[in-house]
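quick one, 326 residues, struct below
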Amino acid sequence: MNRTARLCSVAAAGVLGLAIVGLVVGDYPVPARSAIATAVWDRGGEFDFVINSLRFPRVTVAVLAGICLAASGLLFQTLIDNPLVSPDIIGIDTGAAAAAVAILAIGLDARLLPYAAFAGALATAVVIFALSWRRGFSGGRLVLVGIGINALLSAVITYMLVRFPVERVSAAARWQAGTLSGSSWDDARTLAVALVVLLPVAFLLVRRLRIMQLGNDAAIALGMRLEQNRMAVIATGCGLAAIVVAVVGPLGFVALLVPHVARSLAGALTVGVLLLTALLGSVMLLSADLVAQRLFAPTVLPAGVVTAAMGGPYLLAVLRKFNRAV
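---
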């Protein structure tokens, strides 16, 4: 078994262990054996409501959302060849959030959220890509344009939160914090459908991304249509990030931190590294949600607060490392 396979096995064990902990701990403790039995086969028992209505959906959403965010971050970082890039840094998440907040603020059906978020993320990506195009694609230019678009969309969200009636925007404000509280099986199904559609596409794009890493001239010489493939990567990464924003709100730094850790452990992009990244995304989000629930119990923090607290110092450490290298 090679190194990446071993790391994937350890990460998968970590996901399983943290999921079990998520079923067991809480204000109403449940024995581990009873929690597993209730979740897997013993429905309708003493702990059915606590496990299958409250904890199991939340754990499932954390696992699926972590996979989506981490895979999205790896796609963007590899495409732009910059470990400091992620959909939340360059405005993709904010575009999805702006569209979703608009749906809530103007009082439309909340079931439109996933579609609005995906459309907002994709539209933001197209705008960023178009504004950063100057007789060719430049990763550095895309990052700068993305940071500017991110700031602009953040201002738009703030405007909507103060402009529309409080009874509408209060839900949007809570959602903006990025929380797994109240996660349902419908949320889990939405994420599962997105993963079934988009994750295989991400795996198929790995080979094309590896070719793109050889440089534009080499990729063109090998017969690759660069811009079409770049747009395919962007659309896939946007879809993975947008569906999470639609379901649980913005969760900062997962898409930034996890791919960097995975590459540090396993090396350059491969199918195995993408799988490891997805599993580590679940590990991070499960861990963050457990900390959010128990650190200041009975007060429950939004998971987004914890992911930011985990990711912020790591980002500063990475920036310091790059400054020394330069």
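Residues 103 and 112 are 7 Å apart (CA to CA).
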